[in-house]
Amino acid sequence: MTLCSLYEQAAFLLGGGVLELLVKFLGERVGRLAILQPDGDDLSLVDGVGIASSGAILYGGMDHVRRLLAKKSDQGVTILEIDGIMDLALEEDWSRMVLLGGSPWVVAVMLPEVPDEETLRLLKGADGLVRIWDRHRSIDGIEKNMASLSYLLYAVKSALPSIFEPFPPEFLATFLVDVMKESICPERISLLQDDGKSLCHLAGDESPLLDRGGIFSKEYLSPVPVPIEESHRFAVGSDNFDRLGELYSVVLPIISGSDRFFYLVKWGSLRSGEVSDVLELIGGVTVKAMAMNRLREEGTSRVKELSRREFALRGLHRAIISLMENDTEDELLSRVLDIFGEMTQSSRCFVVVYDKSVPGYVKWGDRADGVVKVARHLLVSREEPLELEPLPGVLSVDEAVEILRDHGLSFDDELCSDERSMDLVFPLRYGSTFVGFIAVSSSVTGSRYGDMDGLETLAASCAVAIRRCRLFGEVSMQRDLLDRQIRARDFLRDLAGEIQQIRSVDVLKNSLSSTLPLALDVEKADMICGVEGLAEISEKICPDESVIFSDVAVWVPLRSGGTLHGALKLTVEDPRSVGDDRLELMSLVGAFVAPRLEAMKCCHRGKVMDVGRMVELAVRSSVEELILDGFEPSVISATVSLSEEQERCCFRVLKEGTRAIVVLPFPWEGEIRQLFPPSDGWAPFVP
């Protein structure tokens, strides 16, 4: 045998001649046979000897083979005995089925009887040839698939870097049309874009007009090719399937957020499972690329927004810090108007705050043309600031006017006048307390105001800063009062120690005249011993008066042990301008000096006055006055404190130590007696 003939025989066998030789040699020995090959779940007739052609396909034949294989355990060529169940599926009588080609087997030979030794030997040789033929056939197919897959992967590899470029979605989707044309060589390809309302043609071959039904209406879809086959009619949409069935093979959805694209592809020369896998790979990579591009765009946008916000927050931070640095309310409100005027670029703005010294809401000042002018003009009188439920951080003028009117406040002249109409109102609130508001007019640039969130935050900070200034002022006043009290305490301690060491009235007078002017902030201090020196205030002396005012002096009676020894005469420019804290200190000084005069016995009996006698005279004077006016007065006393209602019923109230003596314009009976009940210690006054 020559090499040429050997090659020809080998080529014949590897090209499928094995089945022809099998029919030839087996047909000479058995007379009737059939050769079948697996086709899905069925067995298809390939060739045979002595059989009718009516049994071309054995439907469900693979189920029978699997059932028979489960009962077979011997090695070598697999010979299955056909049972009664399989006989029912066959149109001719067969006894044995021989499986050739290993596992998975490639060829099945149907025999009418059990093969003898020679036939079995022949089948073993045929099994080897089938294996060689099947291996060659599979390797040849694999090589072809590998070559096409290699080309596909090369084309996809070349396109991947460009897919991840920061292209707009429409540009990237159109670019993929060229990639698919180059890689999978489709017979037809079209690109559709879904704008949320309809499908429109974007690139590629013209396609029929489709409805947004089936997969074209799904919100979320994986980038997996959907075959346009009868089994997928419902998925594609019945109407769309009828329009696409003859034109395209698959639909590839590419959905990334609001970007929705659909590729319609008609297979060309390349058609294998690998092509579908590569198409799915392209779709998956594209979806990721679009998502990354979207994230990149969002990230860039967020960075720009954060940069803008950072700049705004830095400005807001500096503005708030500058507000908190002001310790006086006037400086603060002037700074508030400047900051709001600059941040809003408004042609005019003004601020209204509650002032408890007025009391009421006062227009502190306004800013126009970059100049702040202080007004301090009362707009609404009110004893206490308004308590409001939570308000928005900014209100239109109409909203603000309506809300404030509902609470009895009207600022219409300032907010709504034609010449000075304002646009926005920023309420100033501390907790539920309505501190006031800042009103701004339209922007001189003609554009919208700046960062509204920042302006609302600034307005809230202004309210806190105003509260801080006022608290700071109150704390300063309390601190000054405390300092004065500490100095007064130290002065009284030193004065008490000094007085106790003095044995002479003259020395005491000199000491008081030198120390009291500085300590009590008076022009001159004189101590008068004896009541004969009190002619200037004789008519004003009462048993319960701690200080007495004259035209140029404040007199402090010196009482001790129920006796009036004299008085301290403190000369001041305006006696009525002396504050309560100074009057209290003057009274305390008198309380220190009087006992010392009592101990010195510096005044003769005729030069002093009995306080009890003063009480009697005061009571008698009040009673006589009431009788002259036609009343029937009564005088009662008790060691209690009077209520406001009791004080309103009294004509006069006198204090004698811890005892309260009241002169009533009515008899002590009926309702008056119920108001001053004996059970509380009330009884007729006994001198």
Structure report:
- The protein is of the alpha+beta class.
- 46% of the residues lie in helices and 22% in strands.
- The protein contains 17 helices and 27 strands.
- Strands 12, 13, 14, 15, 16, 17 and 18 form a 7-stranded antiparallel sheet that branches. Strands 3-2-1-6-5-4 form a 6-stranded antiparallel sheet, with helices on both faces.
- It is rod-shaped and about 170 Å long.
- It starts with a helix and ends with a strand.
- The mean pLDDT is 78.
What is the compact description of this entry?
By secondary structure, the chain is of the alpha+beta class. The protein contains 17 helices and 27 strands.
Q: Keyphrases for this structure?
A:
22% strand, 6-stranded antiparallel β-sheet, rod-shaped, alpha+beta
Set out the fold topology.
Blueprint lengths: L2 H28 L2 E7 L2 E8 L7 E2 L2 H9 L8 E4 L2 H6 L6 E5 L6 E5 L5 H47 L5 H15 L4 E7 L4 E6 L21 E2 L5 H4 L1 H7 L5 E7 L2 E8 L6 H52 L4 H16 L3 E8 L4 E9 L2 E11 L4 E2 L7 E2 H10 L5 H4 L8 E7 L2 E8 L11 H50 L3 H16 L3 E6 L18 E2 L3 E8 L2 E9 L8 H21 L8 E2 H18 L5 E5 L5 H6 L2 E5 L2 E6 L5 H6 L7 E2 L3
Antiparallel strand pairs: 1-2, 1-6, 2-3, 4-5, 5-6, 7-8, 7-11, 9-10, 10-11, 12-13, 12-18, 13-14, 15-18, 16-17, 17-18, 19-22, 20-21, 21-22, 22-23, 24-26, 24-27, 25-26
Helix pairs in contact: 1-4, 4-5, 4-8, 5-8, 8-9, 8-12, 9-12, 12-14
Q: Roughly what is the average pLDDT, rounded to an integer?
A: 78
Compute the number of strand runs: 27
Pairing-aware structural class of the strands and helices? Answer: alpha+beta
Global geometry? rod-shaped
Distance between the termini: 167 Å
Amount of helix: 40-55%
Number of helices: 17
Task: Report the β-strand fraction as a percent range.
Answer: 15-25%
Which spans have pLDDT < 50 for at least 5 consecutive residues?
Answer: none
Main pleated-sheet profile: 7 strands, antiparallel
Query: Radius of gyration, Cα only, in angstroms?
Result: 57 Å
